[in-house]
Each structure stands twice: as C-alpha cells, then as structure tokens.
Design a protein that fits this description.
Layout (H helix, E strand, L loop, with lengths): L2 H15 L12 H24 L3 E3 L8 E2 L2 E2 H24 L6 H21 L4 H19 L6 H19 L9 E3 L8 E2 L2 E2 L1 H22 L1
Antiparallel strand pairs: 1-4, 2-3, 5-6
Length: 222
C-alpha cells in the first residue's frame, strides 16, 4: 500500500480546502509558498540524496508507489513541498486569527530550546552524522531567523505544527504500522526516540519550516 503518498495527500487536503477562507485568502499566496519551498528544498534534497546513498536513512518499498528521482522515492521529493505548504498555511492562519497574542514569548521559548538542543547534540553527537548535520542546520536556521527576528509568529507556528508533525512523522517512522516507511541507521544518530520519531527530527522540522516561512515573508515584504 503506497501509504507515504496517502499521508502527503492528507497533509495537503485541509490547507488546500481552506485556502479560500475569506479572511486569509491563502490561495493568493500559493505562488510565494511554492517559490519559498523550492529554494529551501534544494539543499534539503541534496542532503537527502547523500544520506540515502550512504544508508544513514532509507525507505521501505512496501509503502511507496515505485517512482524515483535522484534515487529518492518521488514521495520523498514531494515531501519538501507538501509539508512546507501545510505549515505556511498554518502560519497564515496564526498570523490572522492569533494576531493579538504576544508572540515574543513563544519565539524566545522555541529559539532557546532549539539552540540548547543543537549545542548539546553537537557536544554529545559529534561522531553521529545525522545528529551533527541536523544540529549545524539548526544553528544556521536560528541565525537566519535572528537576522529576520522582526518576522512574527514563527515560534508559535512551529509549536502548533508539532501536532500534525507528531502524527505524520510518527507514522513515517513506524507508529501504528508494522514497519517504518522511513528507517534510520541508529549508528548515525543518538538513538533517542520520541515514540518512534528520532529526536533529531524536531530540529530538522524546525530548520525546514522556519526557513520557508522567512523566505515566504521576505517575498511579501518586497
């Protein structure tokens, strides 16, 4: 069963269906979202190709449709557009419906937590390629965010996005199914899981989501 593509369809369903909400008109931002996602997808796909080739992670063919690009499942390629699209939709909703909230508290919480995790992971996981690379990616993303810290609601958006993240990434890594869709070589990570999700994936998600939202907003500013 091609469960991976079904998860991506489910990920897109509500953001697309609700894009025509008359208060946020997210459908008008589809172009900017796609551009931002594409810019961020390039380094992430290169990272993905390298790690897949070196068996740092891989994919269970039983859950795929069988098409590949750059030796990656097509579902994995689409991941870098479907997830950012959904998270940018969450950001747009948060920016409008929760605009009265003082979001600096959430920004500081997320910034401090990610910074602490990255530094800690670098210290204890220098020899682990996924742990080290995701921590460096997290620090770069934090710097990018710091340079654009006037952008609002990134921290709150990330926290809210953890709800679908736990569901989708949980299933991808083996929750509620017989075997994981995406497997990890635990020799290259800390082998610490939140349920079935490698702890490093939380930083990975932050790096991708925050970068896409910042680039999305920079287009709107221009």
């Amino acid at each position: 069963m091609p469960l991976y593509i079904y998860l991506e369809i489910a990920t897109l369903f509500f953001p697309i269906a609700l894009s025509f909400d008359r208060k946020i008109f997210f459908f008008k931002e589809w172009g900017k979202t796609i551009i931002a996602s594409t810019i961020v997808a390039i380094p992430f796909i290169i990272w993905d190709v390298f790690f897949t080739q070196n068996s740092i992670w891989g994919f269970n063919e039983d859950y795929l449709i069988g098409l590949k690009l750059f030796n990656l499942p097509i579902e994995e390629i689409l991941f870098f557009w479907t997830v950012p699209f959904a998270c940018t939709f969450i950001y747009s909703c948060v920016s409008f419906y929760l605009r009265e909230i003082k979001e600096n508290f959430f920004n500081q919480i997320v910034f401090s937590a990610i910074l602490f995790a990255c530094i800690t992971f670098i210290i204890i996981g220098t020899s682990k390629s996924y742990t080290l690379s995701v921590s460096i990616s997290g620090l770069i993303s934090l710097l990018f965010w710091k340079l654009n810290f006037k952008q609002k609601f990134i921290g709150l958006t990330y926290l809210i996005s953890l709800i679908p993240f736990l569901i989708v990434n949980g299933i991808l890594t083996g929750s509620l199914i017989d075997s994981p869709i995406v497997w990890y070589n635990n020799e290259e990570n800390l082998a610490v899981r939140f349920f079935t999700i490698p702890i490093e994936d939380f930083i990975y998600s932050f790096s991708m989501i925050s970068s896409v939202i910042i680039i999305f907003n920079l287009q709107k500013t221009k």
